[in-house]
Design goal:
312 residues, mainly alpha, Growth Hormone, Chain: A, 2 domains
Length: 312
């Protein structure tokens, strides 16, 4: 019961917090307090009970703990990237559902083709090497999005998705391999369940972080762009005059007001693009940090052991 309350409260806070302005909403605040209290009770119970539902003993192993961080980041990159790309294509490029699906297909195909190759690569060497390579590739691919513009289309995102998909697949398999590489066989069952749980939690946290970044950074960039206009930018004034003239030519009742509204929409669109660039950067930074942390893992006791969580 305690575990259920803990997980449900945490999941609700993570998924709905950004849209409710986090702790400004009483429900989010109280559910956060509930999640913290029940989480502490749950951990204490699992550590002291003779036959715990979820054994936390694998976390005493350094490789398993580092592997959980890797799986957490892999979940963020996998689910976060799948969340942010369609959002950009729909909000900025105004793509239809079919066009978004066609663009996103590249990532799925890349991961499907890379899965067997990545599996053999991970089993053929120390898991730390492909993990660093995988997260490095993912960081590079997602990092390309930090330079996104409103003109980006299928081919720009195809390149990003190929590198990201390849990197995430290698990193995910390697993280699973490393997580259980130094664990005794008796802990494998508990470790497998924890691997999948942590990855899914990482995905939920990734969505919450990206939603918050997009909301906050869009407002911040819009304020900066508006301040630049108010400071008397000649280019901005010329654009505003051009929009006003265009509205006047169309016979709009209030051409100046319509021009200002259209200009504000352009500013908001530019701010949104800049915010997406920031969100891509956050994802890339997470992957880069995971690649560095992988270097601190210990060598596996039995290279070539099967991954605990299986393929994703």
């Amino acid at each position: 019961a305690v575990m259920t309350v803990f997980l449900l409260s945490m999941q609700y806070v993570i998924e709905e917090g950004a849209s409710e302005n986090w702790f400004e909403d009483p429900m989010i605040l109280w559910l956060t307090v509930t999640a913290v209290l029940t989480g502490v009770v749950f951990i204490w119970r699992q550590l002291t009970y003779r036959q715990p539902i979820v054994s936390l003993r694998p976390f005493a192993d350094r490789n398993f703990s580092l592997g959980m961080v890797m799986n957490f980041v892999a979940g963020m990159s996998l689910f976060g990237g799948t969340f942010i790309l369609p959002l950009f294509l729909g909000q900025v490029r105004q793509y239809s559902a079919a066009e978004v699906g066609t663009t996103m297909l590249v990532s799925g195909l890349t991961m499907f083709i890379a899965a067997p190759v990545a599996g053999r690569l991970v089993r053929a060497m120390d898991a730390r090497i492909p993990m660093v390579i995988g997260f490095g590739l993912a960081a590079y691919g997602v990092g390309l999005g930090a330079y996104v513009t409103e003109d980006w289309g299928f081919w720009q995102f195809a390149t990003l998705q190929v590198w990201r998909g390849l990197g995430v697949m290698i990193a995910m398999i390697a993280a699973q391999q490393m997580s259980v590489s130094t664990l005794p066989v008796s802990m494998m069952k508990d470790a497998s369940a924890l691997v999948n749980l942590i990855r899914n939690i990482g995905g939920a946290v990734g969505l919450a972080v990206l939603t918050t970044v997009l909301s906050h950074q869009t407002a911040l960039h819009f304020a900066d762009l508006s301040a630049g206009v108010n400071a008397g930018s000649l280019q901005s004034q010329a654009m505003l005059e051009g929009l006003t003239s265009m509205m006047e030519a169309r016979g709009v009742f209030d051409p100046e007001g319509a021009g200002r509204k259209a200009f504000a929409m352009l500013l908001n669109r530019e701010a949104l693009v800049l915010a997406f660039g920031d969100a891509f950067f956050v994802l890339a930074a997470g992957c880069a940090v995971a690649a560095v942390l992988a270097l601190f893992a210990a060598p596996a006791k039995a290279p070539g052991a099967a991954p605990a969580g299986g393929g994703h």
